[in-house]
Amino acid sequence: MRMPWSLVRRVRELPSTVADGLLAALLTLLALPQLFLDSEYFERLDIQFREPGAVAVLLLLCQTVPLAWRRRAPYAVLAVTWTAATTQLALGYKPTFAEAAMVVALYTVAAHRPRPQAALAAGLFTAGMVGYGLIIEARYPTAFGDGLQSWVQTFVQYGAAFFLGDLQKRRLAYTAKLEALTAQLAEEQELRSRWTAAEERGRIARELHDVVAHSVSVMVVQAGRPAGGGGGRGRAPAPAGRVDLSAYRIVQEALTNSLKHSGPGRARILVRYGAHDLRLEIRDGGPAGNGQKRGQASAFGRQPTDSARRSRRAGHGLIGMRERVALFGGTLETGSLPGGGYRVAARLPLDNGSQ
To answer: Where are the extended beta strands (E) located within the chain?
Structure first.
């Protein structure tokens, strides 16, 4: 059962030109032998057809080959297939399975063209099929013992083809609408992410500006002190450089997220100050400091509860940490711990201008 569906899926994944070409080739292979082989059905009815030749083969190909262009020029393909089939019948050649090309062409018109134009084309085609049926009754009356039944079967067949094509058109329109909405949502999400990152960069820039301005103010005050005035230096040290500030903020944001998302618990902070970089590692133990269950969220941007989802939408902890690390060309790693909890690890390179 899986093989036919797998084959259909593969055919659907082919480019439309290739798929239509394969359909035309398959219909030709099925119809061409019928033109030369004897048919017990027609022999039983004692119907004599004209001997097939080059003209008969050409008319048959004019019915099947145009299907390769059925989606690019459906009106033309419908007209050509009907003309070739009617001419073949009028000249007395044996009808073949190539007549199915008219069914496919009518389906294509209904599926890939606007409904008003498709309905007009179907009306013209119906008139043409009336002439086609009259030719059959005039040439081969014994082939259709019950004329009314034959007419009904013919028009039910082509009516079903048009209905299925129109149904396919509505399905394609619905799918295209869903794809457009999906693309719009993705674009809005991308814009929202960019806006959030830009907002966070602006906040960090303002913060650094305040630190630098404060440092300059302290330098000016210290430069204007009288000699020996060490007692007026103040009790708190002046703010340090940009790396120290960013490291402080990263730890602050990580602990804030831990409190929001995991609740009161325990967290561990490890700071390594090396010659070339500053490394931070913050770990929490999950909700209430205990190991969390599988599938339950932890700190630093996870989603264990509705309040955590709201805090994720409202705050930008992970984005802020990433922007601070990116400011110095560092790296940031975040993720759940195997036994529960969450881990944030950051590395901030040091240089002479970042101290």
So the answer is: 267-273, 277-284, 331-336, 342-349
Write out pLDDT tens, residues 246-285. Answer: 888 888 888 888 777 777 778 889 999 888 899 999 998 7
Taking alpha carbons only, the member of 22, 161, 33 closest to residue 96 is 33
User: What tens digit of pLDDT does each residue of 87-114 get?
Assistant: 998 898 888 889 999 999 999 999 999 9
- 200 is written with which tokens? 């966070």
Amino acid sitting at position 198: A
Q: d(Cα 264, Cα 295) in Å, to the nearest integer?
A: 20
Distance CA 82, CA 121 (A): 12
- 299-336 pLDDT, tens per residue? 444 444 444 443 443 345 788 788 888 888 899 998 88
Sheet holding 342-349: strands in order across?
267-273, 277-284, 342-349, 331-336
Give me the residue label for tokens 């955590």: 308
Q: Kindly report, residue by residue over 141-161, the tens digit of the pLDDT.
A: 655 555 677 778 878 888 899
In the chain, what are the domain boundaries?
Answer: 2-183, 242-349
- Residue 121 gets the label, from left (phi > 0), alpha (psi -120 to 50) or beta, of alpha
Q: Are 254 and 277 in contact (CB under 8 A)?
A: no
Contact of 66 with 77, CB cutoff 8 Å:
yes
CATH topology of domain 242-349: Heat Shock Protein 90 (3.30.565)
Q: What are the residues facing 280 on neighbouring strands?
A: 271, 346
Contact 336, 303 (CB under 8 A): no
